[in-house]
Design goal:
It is a single chain. The protein has one domain: Porin. Helix 1 runs antiparallel to helix 3. Strands 1, 2, 3, 4, 5, 6, 7, 8, 9, 10, 11, 12 and 13 form a 13-stranded antiparallel sheet that branches. Helix content is 12%, strand content 40%. The relative contact order is 0.19.
C-alpha cells in the first residue's frame, strides 16, 4: 500500500486535506462517511493509554456534509480509566464541527476462558471470491466507493436491490505516510452497508446515513473485511436502517448499524 491517492494528507498539526478518493456518492464536494470514520478512529486510537487497549465501539455522528477542504481535528479522553475509557474526536471545517466520534476502549487481556458453545465465537466467514471481472463504475467522479476500495461480491451487487454480502479492501492509506490500523480498515468499509444493500432506486431517492455505530470484538486480520448487509425501510416513514454483520477471514468480528434519512431526489 503506497501513499498514492491517500484519503488524507497532513497540512500541519491536526490539520488534514482530503484527496479525491475520499469523496462520497451524493455530492462531489462532500466526503464519504467511510474516510471520515477512519480518520476519526485514527484520532481516538492515538490518544495515550497506560497499557494495551482495544477499541470496542465507535459511534460516528456525521453532523453536516464534510467538505473537500482543510479539516481541523481535535481529540480527548472523555473518561479515563485503566480498564475502560471513553474517547472523543471531532473534525472542523473552519469554525463548524462537521463530524464527531465517541469511542469505547477496553483493556486487552489474555484471559483464560472455559470451553464455550461452538457458536460463541460467531459464524464462520463467507468464502472470499476469486478476483472478479472489472467492476461497473458507479458515479460521475472519482470517489471512495469507486476508486478507494476493492469489492468482491458473494451475493448481490452495488446497485442491485436487496441484501448483499461483499468483501472489501481499502486500497490506500487513510493518512499519507502511515499504514492504516486494522480497526481503521474496518471503520473505512463499515459505512458501505446502506449502499451495497439498497432496496430503493439510487436514481429517484437518497438514503443517507447521518451516523454510523460499529461494535468490534476484535480488529480484523488481513486486508479484507466482509459485510453481510441488509437495509430496512418501512413504508411511508422516510426513515430506514442498514445493518451489517462484519467478518474477516477467521470469522465474525462485529456489527455496523446506520440510521437512514430517506428522501426523494
Amino acid at each position: 500500500m503506497t501513499d498514492v491517492d491517500a484519503l488524507f494528507t497532513t497540512e500541519g498539526a491536526d490539520v488534514f486535506m482530503p484527496g479525491p478518493r475520499a469523496r462520497g456518492p451524493w455530492d462531489a464536494n462532500a466526503l464519504h462517511g467511510g474516510p471520515v470514520a477512519a480518520l476519526l478512529t485514527r484520532l481516538v486510537e492515538q490518544l495515550p493509554a497506560d497499557g494495551p487497549m482495544q477499541v470496542a465501539r465507535v459511534t460516528v455522528e456525521l453532523l453536516r456534509p464534510a467538505p473537500v477542504a482543510l479539516l481541523r481535528a481535535t481529540s480527548s479522553v472523555l473518561r479515563p480509566g485503566r480498564k475502560l475509557q471513553l474517547l472523543g474526536a471531532s473534525l472542523w471545517a473552519g469554525e463548524t464541527e462537521v463530524a464527531r466520534a465517541v469511542a469505547v476502549r477496553i483493556r486487552s487481556l489474555d484471559l483464560s476462558i472455559p470451553t464455550l458453545p461452538a457458536d460463541a465465537a460467531g459464524e464462520p466467514a463467507p468464502a472470499l471470491p476469486a478476483v472478479q471481472a472489472k467492476q461497473r463504475r458507479t458515479g460521475d467522479w472519482d470517489a471512495f466507493h469507486n476508486e478507494g476500495v476493492e469489492m468482491r461480491f458473494v451475493k448481490g451487487y452495488f446497485q442491485d436491490s436487496g441484501p448483499a454480502t461483499v468483501w472489501m479492501r481499502l486500497c490506500q492509506p487513510v493518512v499519507a505516510g502511515e499504514a492504516p490500523t486494522q480497526t481503521q480498515r474496518a471503520m473505512a468499509v463499515a459505512d458501505f452497508g446502506n449502499g451495497v444493500s439498497s432496496i430503493i432506486s439510487w436514481d429517484d431517492h437518497v438514503f443517507i446515513n447521518p451516523e454510523l455505530t460499529v461494535h468490534l470484538v476484535r480488529p480484523p486480520t488481513g486486508e479484507w473485511v466482509c459485510l453481510d448487509a441488509h437495509t430496512y425501510i418501512p413504508p411511508n416513514s422516510g426513515v430506514g436502517l442498514a445493518e451489517s454483520a462484519l467478518y474477516d477471514e477467521h470469522g465474525r468480528i462485529g456489527r455496523a448499524v446506520q440510521a437512514l434519512l430517506v428522501d426523494r431526489r
